[in-house]
Amino acid sequence: FQRIMSSSSAAITLSNGVKMPVIGLGTWQSSPAEVIAAVKASVKAGYRLIDTAAVYQNEEAIGTAIKELVEEGVVKREELFVTTKAWTHELAPGKLEGGLRASLKKLQLEYVDLYLAHMPTAFNDDMSQHVASPVEDVWRQFDAVYKTGLAKSVGVSNWNNEQIGRALALGLTPIHNSQVELHLYFPQHEHVDFCKAHNISVTSYATLGSPGRVNFTLPTGQKLDWAPAPSDLEDKNVVALAEKNKKTPAQVLLRYALDRGLAIIPKSVNISRIEENFNVFDFTISQEGIAKLEESKISQRLFLQDFMAGHPEDAFANERK
């Protein structure tokens, strides 16, 4: 968990020796048309990590953007780090390799650099029924696809410490990365310490407090009702530090995660903001500065993943009580 001080080449070395860039482009809620332009702009700005998921329904467009960037000579495939994630129905017994192959076909790639279990919960195809597949069985499938070479690294997302521990206890391929909601107002110190103790890198999503989550609509067109939450971007200590460093509050929040040794995947389709989010390598936040930022002691999860409620592997069951 080294302090990240340098430029676009900054990376975290995973336990299998693979180097993962510390900053990437998040693509949740990015439509296919938007994401092609966003991926191209991000790579030209210096990003080398692209984060997507089967459930985002934009893998095909991202594949098109990557193919065009490679053909134009902007970047080589081996210089990119592509992450995608298996959705709940792909975690059901016998489904994972097919899910990964479908993602690879859309991405027009022979392998992904990181493949994550998007959730710990397996469901049937239309998510109308729980599939009681324990995380041990889910991880056995990840071990198998890792050994095929279709994924250079494997990991989990939205799993709790106990679930990760059970997967590690199998003694199979270790978990290389854990991607979780993590931001100033949900700092996840216990999870980060747990992962550090087990040599698992951590990727923060919603690093800015996910201000765009309120615009999310289900495939049916329905908008979700989000519980009120304070804004990380408006925190007085964040604003003060931004002014002191001649940076934006968003850049301070991103640097806060980087200086904790984490990888970040801020989402944007705005080219100027994509560039702004990457322009965080010319300042650092000291441990004292991090402690000052955390003075609020706020700890509020924004994404409770309510669809997991009642599933035997609901990662956040204790938080629903």
UniProtKB/TrEMBL annotation:
GO MF, one example: oxidoreductase activity
Database matches in Gene3D superfamilies: NADP-dependent oxidoreductase domain (3.20.20.100)
Residues the entry annotates as binding substrate: H118
Residue ranges constituting the NADP-dependent oxidoreductase domain according to the UniProt record: 23-296
Residues at the catalytic site: Y56
Annotated site (Lowers pKa of active site Tyr): K85
InterPro entries: AKR, Aldo/ket_reductase_CS, NAD(P)_OxRdtase_dom_sf, NADP_OxRdtase_dom
Pfam family, one: Aldo_ket_red
Protein name: NADP-dependent oxidoreductase domain-containing protein
